[in-house]
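Q: Structure tokens for this one, please.
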Amino acid sequence: MKDNTNTHTFTRRDFLKTTGTASAASLVIGPGVLWTRSSQAADGTRTLTIGRSIGTATFDPILTAANRDIWVLDNMNANLVRVTYDGDGIEPDLAESWDISDDGKRYLFKLRDGLKFSDGSSLEPSDVKFSLERVRDDEGSVLSTMFQSIKEVNTPDEQQVEIVLSEPSAPLLSTLAMFSASIVPEAVVKEKGDQFASQPVGAGAFKLEQWDQQSNVTLVKNDHYWQSDKVEVDRVVWEYISNDNTRILNLQSAQINAAISIPFNKIKPLSDDDEIDIHVDKSSREDMLIINHKHKPLDDVRVRKALFHGINREALIEIALHGYGEVSNSFIPDGGMFYNPDNPTYEFNQDKARALLEDAGVEDLELTLMISTGNQIGNQVAVMIQAMLKKIGVKINIAKHESGELWNTLHTGEFDLSMNYWVNDIIDPDQKASFSLYGYNDSRSYFTNYKSSKMKELIEEGRKITDRKEREKVYDQIQRLAVEDVVYINLYYRPFVNASRDDVDRFYQNPTGRFMLEGTSVQS
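A: Here is the predicted structure, written as tokens:
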């Protein structure tokens, strides 16, 4: 029978407001009719094939912040601690326990017995020390800013790791659960050098078997994983199928077992298919328009506010998302830690938009908006925004790029506007604040080039305060300042929408975006 124990009925408007345990985390639409096609090979190997719209760029956890990489990395690697199944807490992973000093500056972790990497080599405290110092210090580390509070990492004995902080860090445990803090083997990384990014070794549930950058990533079960007895599939294939319609057709014809990033207009027709389950999972996703503050006149906050006022976000949700969304008013997702429902935002007001442009002395403004190819929702939203901004005198040219090309263009800074989204990898808002607002690091405030000494001070203060109520006050200020300065244009919060064949049990993406494939099974 189909396992429906982890399901809950969501309406279009309340899916983001649902909180609670994992049993209330997912909506499955569709009758529980057993699929008779076998996903088991003659030798008994069970394979889960997942269709997705974008491919993997790297397997080195410190060199990326892109979801296309993180989805795979999360199931190849392990950390000292990890996010819980429901995405609302932290639990032990490679470390079975830990103690925190009274001053909050020393964390002592005890590792589990007999830990090994996927190549069979022993996982030692020295590997933990190497991994954490690497993510903190390596020039290529994308999220190194988040680890700067780590003063030193010590290995007092064969089973313990001590982390000493320069100052108390409220988000530390949450940060250690992030993909970039994955524990990697020191000897292998040093031996392979740059090749480690394509020949990885980790300590997670799966290991890399094959990588074709143009088509797929194939993972196989890691028998050395400390919970390998709980992993139910032998092979996971991430199939790169950029076009939404093709991905869905492949699912319906049983060429793949599951497909992710399902367009909202496909929810109803797919739910009518007896062999398909639709999963609408609670999400920390926010979609936004990235603005390049270095490109004039976008450096003028009045122009950025005008663009914000010129976009009818409710219409975007109703038409492009078929009502499965909520206007965002903060960089923190609705329901997330320290989210302020009363944070101000900008209403749709074309008269205000035109007045702001006039006040800024801007006429006949022409901008280019980058979007990813093959994304139906993204394309529809871009066309709608183009029409909306035309009414305030702004011409928008839409430029479609492959996801890798779009990401590289963001890095180089040669763009005006870009449609992007963010998913929290950890429950603490420090990660997103550090990447998308801090400004004094390599991410350049999510490549907007926004810099504010006040924002920098607030984010640093928010890391030091351990009292939850006092810390929340700081994050109220951060949320307000981000909107006042229009770092980027908040569009909407939306759920994860994925689908699976009915032979798949417990296919689930938790609110931090992690696909919990360790517990997924495929029936024969």
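A few notes: The chain has a mean pLDDT of 90. DSSP finds 15 helices and 22 strands in the chain.
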